[in-house]
């Protein structure tokens, strides 16, 4: 769940509910964005699991939530739940890359309309937004630094937007850029940060908030370079 974008409070609550369903009294769990510590009150050694990769796959979060509910109601045993979770962990439940790129393009195009942009700028935003999202996917394979990939993607979006305006394909440069970077905005991080802070998980909330700010800074820096070069 943590690797798929769930907030830490949800992960802790799920672990505690599952432990309680199997008759384990007073379990302890501590979850951060990069690790999980779980203890069964002295019956076994404390377990530590490192979380090195984090992405967004809310479908997995929904499935694991469903499994935890079935455990709570006694519909499945521990062995069945473990086997199912292992299959979910190894399975690739994400949409194909081309579907995500098309979705990012559509989001960019209609975001421009939402920002009161002109319909003739729809396709420049559509193309630039899809290219930026595709750039993130491929550069992340080469350089495992999230903020660098976001910076390069925002830079590409800015350059494409300026090129479209230069050749007369686009009209409002600012609206095209703002709409095109919408798929890159860390909306889930910001939401989870606020939810964790409200739930009292200060370490997780602040760390996710810092990650969201750095991501936003990387996107802003990429766009700012374009404006500084072609002002």
What report would you give on this structure?
This protein is mostly helical. The chain has 9 helices and 3 strands. It has a 3-stranded antiparallel β-sheet with strand order 1-2-3, with helices on one face. Helix 4 crosses helix 5 and helix 5 runs antiparallel to helix 6. The longest helix has 28 residues, at 202-229. The protein starts with 7 loop residues before the first helix and ends with a helix. The mean pLDDT is 85.
Name its key features:
single chain, 231 residues, three-stranded antiparallel beta sheet
In short:
The chain has 231 residues and is mostly helical. It has helices spanning 8-21, 58-72, 78-90, 97-114, 122-142, 146-166, 173-180, 187-198, 202-229; strands spanning 28-32, 35-39, 47-50. α4 crosses α5 (122-142), α4 (97-114) packs across α7 and α6 packs parallel to α9.
């Amino acid at each position: 769940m943590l690797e798929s974008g769930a907030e830490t409070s949800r992960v802790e609550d799920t672990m505690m509910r599952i432990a309680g369903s199997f008759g384990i009294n007073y379990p302890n769990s501590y979850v951060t964005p990069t690790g999980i510590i779980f203890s069964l009150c002295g019956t076994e050694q404390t377990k530590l699991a490192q979380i090195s990769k984090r992405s967004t796959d809310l479908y997995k979060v929904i499935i694991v939530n469903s499994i935890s509910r079935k455990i709570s109601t006694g519909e499945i045993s521990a062995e069945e739940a473990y086997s199912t979770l292992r299959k979910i962990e190894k399975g690739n439940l994400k949409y194909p890359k081309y579907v995500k790129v098309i979705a990012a393009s559509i989001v960019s195009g209609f975001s421009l309309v939402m920002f009161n942009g002109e319909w003739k700028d729809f396709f420049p935003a559509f193309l630039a937004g899809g290219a930026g999202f595709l750039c993130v996917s491929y550069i992340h394979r080469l350089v495992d630094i999230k903020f660098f990939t976001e910076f390069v993607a925002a830079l590409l979006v800015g350059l494409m937007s300026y090129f479209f305006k230069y050749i007369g394909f686009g009209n409002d440069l600012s609206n095209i850029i703002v709409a095109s970077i919408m798929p890159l905005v860390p909306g889930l991080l910001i939401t989870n940060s606020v939810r964790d802070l409200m739930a009292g998980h200060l370490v997780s909330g602040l760390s996710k908030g810092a990650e969201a700010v750095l991501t936003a800074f990387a996107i802003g820096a990429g766009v700012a370079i374009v404006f500084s070069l072609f002002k």
